[in-house]
Specification:
Length: 218
């Protein structure tokens, strides 16, 4: 089985370039394209998509709103945001909305393919440095006492082991690194992370990091 990818960008040249790059991979199949966010949501609703490469600035429905709409669907695909700026405020908003990561549009082809593989495997595709930068932008821009209380309440529902895993996730560790550090199998780490996502009501690892930060554990 190959990973089925939807390309979403209002620039047909960008879509053509991505299709050419991904077409050379044995593990990826481009199954569709969309020129705006609403068409992307409609395509995902029709099914058969594992990963969405999502531009942010688009007509009709932008990438942030489209990401939120897609992740609200049952069994949604992974979403990777495409951008031209690594510190763009829209990237922060997209990740806070649940996107699984972001890629710069000038990312080398091999790294784009590797990033898609990582999100499908549930691995982090953001470096710890970038993750911490994003946390600061989200939490320092608009401190919210209510969100801190909510985060502490949700974190209180984690088991001790889940809390350890969540802290490691927030620090940017990969599943393999967490397994080695906490002396458990990668499969067990993945099971814990699944439970953490459910209990914290999040959809990506950046949101876990933000929750752990708000709860005073990072």
């Amino acid at each position: 089985m190959t990973t089925r990818v939807l390309l979403v960008d209002d620039d047909p040249l960008v879509r053509a370039g991505l299709a050419l790059i991904l077409g050379g991979s044995d593990t990826i199949t481009v199954v569709g394209e969309a020129a705006d966010g609403q068409l992307a949501v409609d395509a995902v609703r029709a099914g058969g998509i594992d990963v969405v490469l999502m531009d942010i600035r688009m007509p009709v429905l932008d990438g942030i709103a489209a990401t939120s709409g897609i992740l609200a669907l049952a069994d949604p695909p992974k979403v990777i945001v495409l951008t031209t700026f690594d510190a763009d405020e829209y990237v922060v908003r997209a990740l806070a909305a649940g996107a699984n990561g972001f890629l710069l549009k000038d990312t080398p082809p091999a790294e784009i393919v590797a990033a898609i593989g990582k999100v499908v495997a549930g691995e982090p595709m953001l470096s710890p440095t970038i993750t911490q930068q994003l946390i600061r932008q989200v939490t320092d821009a608009a401190p919210d006492q209510q969100s801190d209380v909510l985060a502490r309440s949700r974190v209180a529902g984690l088991t001790d082991r889940e809390r350890e895993v969540a802290i490691a996730v927030g620090a940017g560790s990969s599943n393999a690194e967490i397994a080695a550090e906490l002396h458990m199998s990668v499969a067990t780490v993945k099971a814990h992370i699944s439970h953490i996502f459910t209990k914290l009501d999040v959809t990506n690892r950046v949101q876990v990091a933000i929750a752990m930060h708000d709860a005073g554990l990072l």
